[in-house]
């Protein structure tokens, strides 16, 4: 609406035709005398509507500036509505193509981009783990609007996709962590002395409206398989993560940080050139071992060597408990869902800091050509001459 008048737009008049004079009465009752552009009036209990509540959002008409006041007010208003939905426990909200009508006059292509940007940004920053379904309402005959929203949505899906690789020694809980991230048992987890993950395994699932690919790897220092056996398996698996991982999750158990854990980090830095820790997050499992009322940052700070490693990873660290924090967690922090949202937020922030990039290693470009040549000729890639060890093959991916 414009000027704090609920009948200033076509949609407001449509609602009045359905509800009648009760719309104006309830609007005046809920609105009060003061108003600010970007704020909304929430009207509840309107008869004859399938929804329990209607948001009336105050906006400015389009001023032909894509970063101007009118657009900023639209962004703020969408965020305010989504925040209110969470605060009130609403399970769904339907947004029309805000501002593209005759009165406000925004270009539909701009409306599509702004609305979807705000929805995706809100979802990224959101801590609340309850379900909130956001629907965009478009008239079937408005082909231009449908095309605009479809185009922007597809673009967002590509940009929002994330690819992560789990690294750590056998028994650290990598496979269980992967299952916890996806909320279902997709990865093989084994408690035997040998690694439960014999081959690299990659799975993809839609999380928070974006595509997430997770690659689980065999543990570091597993001696029962030769490097020559492992190379082709890792190469084949990592093609599922092409053109490169956005994040390495280095997995440790909550406990004393020994020389064995330090050796894992050293091995990663040795085999992954181009500063892999710039793309790394330290993730702890067995969160039930974390002392009561202690968060993981405090636990890390008590061990200097561990603290040094986390600082090299930009201070990025989180904690999960793959068994005990799923159902009825003792508090919000000790909740896998809370930690998952924090992990996704951390990865997104890291990707932004890396200017949208992912891990690459130009030094392996020639090795990639050899691999492709072998695959095309049917030769075994196990004979590939790689001097730096099989984990260097993660950097096979290239930025296109």
From TrEMBL:
Residues 1-157 form the Macro domain. PROSITE patterns: G_AIG1, MACRO. Belongs to the TRAFAC class TrmE-Era-EngA-EngB-Septin-like GTPase superfamily. AIG1/Toc34/Toc159-like paraseptin GTPase family. IAN subfamily. Residues 159-368 form the AIG1-type G domain. It comes from Oryzias javanicus (Javanese ricefish). GO terms for molecular function: GTP binding. This is AIG1-type G domain-containing protein. Keywords: GTP-binding, Nucleotide-binding.
């Amino acid at each position: 609406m414009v000027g704090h008048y609920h009948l200033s737009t076509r949609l407001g008049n449509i609602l009045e035709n359905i509800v009648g004079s009760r719309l104006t009465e309830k609007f005046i009752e809920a609105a009060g005398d003061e108003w600010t552009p970007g704020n909304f009036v929430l009207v509840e209990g309107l008869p004859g509507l399938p929804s329990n509540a209607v948001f009336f959002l105050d906006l400015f008409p389009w001023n032909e500036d894509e970063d101007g006041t009118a657009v900023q007010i639209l962004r703020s208003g969408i965020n305010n509505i989504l925040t209110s939905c969470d605060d009130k426990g609403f399970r769904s909200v339907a947004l029309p193509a805000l501002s593209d009508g005759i009165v406000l006059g925004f270009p539909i292509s701009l409306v599509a981009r702004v609305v979807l940007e705000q929805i995706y940004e809100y979802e990224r920053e959101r801590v609340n783990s309850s379900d909130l379904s956001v629907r965009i309402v478009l008239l079937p005959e408005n082909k231009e609007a449908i095309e605009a929203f479809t185009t922007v949505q597809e673009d967002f899906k590509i940009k929002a996709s994330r690819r992560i690789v789990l690294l750590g020694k056998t028994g650290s809980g990598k496979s269980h962590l992967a299952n916890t991230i996806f909320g279902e048992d997709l990865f093989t987890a084994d408690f035997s002395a040998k690694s439960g993950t014999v081959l690299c395994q990659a799975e993809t699932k839609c999380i928070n409206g974006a595509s997430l690919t997770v690659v689980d790897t065999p543990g570091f220092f597993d001696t029962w398989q030769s490097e020559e056996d492992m190379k082709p398996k890792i190469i084949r698996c990592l093609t599922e993560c092409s053109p490169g991982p956005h994040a390495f999750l280095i997995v440790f158990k909550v406990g004393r940080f020994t020389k064995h854990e330090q050796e894992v980090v050293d091995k990663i830095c040795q085999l992954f050139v181009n500063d892999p820790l710039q793309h790394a997050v330290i993730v702890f499992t067995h969160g039930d071992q974390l002392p009561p009322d202690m968060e993981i940052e405090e636990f890390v700070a008590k061990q200097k060597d561990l603290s040094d490693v986390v600082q090299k990873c930009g201070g990025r660290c989180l904690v999960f408990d793959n068994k005990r924090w799923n159902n009825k967690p003792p508090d919000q922090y000790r909740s896998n869902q809370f930690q998952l949202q924090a992990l996704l937020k951390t990865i997104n922030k890291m990707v932004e800091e890396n200017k949208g990039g992912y891990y690459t290693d130009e030094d392996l470009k020639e090795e990639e050509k050899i691999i492709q040549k072998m695959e095309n000729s049917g030769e075994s890639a196990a004979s590939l001459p790689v001097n730096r060890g099989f984990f260097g093959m993660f950097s096979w991916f290239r930025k296109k």
